[in-house]
Amino acid sequence: MAIKEGIRTGGRSARVQQSIHTAIRDLLLEHDRSMLSVPLIAARAGVTPSTIYRRWGDLTTLLADAAVERLRPDIPVNCGNLREDLQTWTEQYLDEMSSAPGRELMRDVVASSAATCSGKCSAIARDQLQIIIERALARGETAPPAEELMDAIVAPMVYRILYAEAPPSLERMHQLIDICLARQD
Asked: Would the pLDDT of 7 be above 70?
C-alpha cells in the first residue's frame, strides 16, 4: 500500500506524523522489533490505530516510512575537491548503512510495498550527490552526473550491504569513485 500523498505536511498532520515516528524510535529502544504492532505504536504516540492505518495502511509501510525519515543524511561535507567530497560522503554512508540499525532501516524500506519509500531513499542519496557535484562545478571541476554516481557508487554499496556476506571495503569504494572520476578526464 502506498503512503497517502495528499495529506498536508504542516500543522496537526505533521505533529501526528512526528509523534508516531518518535514512538517508533522509542519503542525500538525498549522492545525487540518483532514486538512492535500498530496498536502499541498508536498508544505510545497518543493516536488511534485507525489514524495509522488510514495514513500508512499497514505496519510494514509505517516502519519503512519511519526508516526513510531516519535515513535522511546531514548536508554533505565540503572537503574542497570532488574526489575527497565523494570519498568522505561514501565513507559516512557506508558506515551508517552497514551498521546494524542502518541495515534494519534499509530492510524496512525494501520490505515495504510502498514504492514511495524506496523512491524517497533514492532521491535523498541523489540530492546529496547533486550538492557535492554542484560544489565541484562551482570550483571549476568536472563531475559526472548524479545518476552515474548512483549507479557506480551507491547501487553496489547498497546491494553489498543488504545481500552480501560483508559490506564493501572502503578501498573498493574508493576504487569505484576513481573509476567513475577517470571517465570525466
From this structure: no
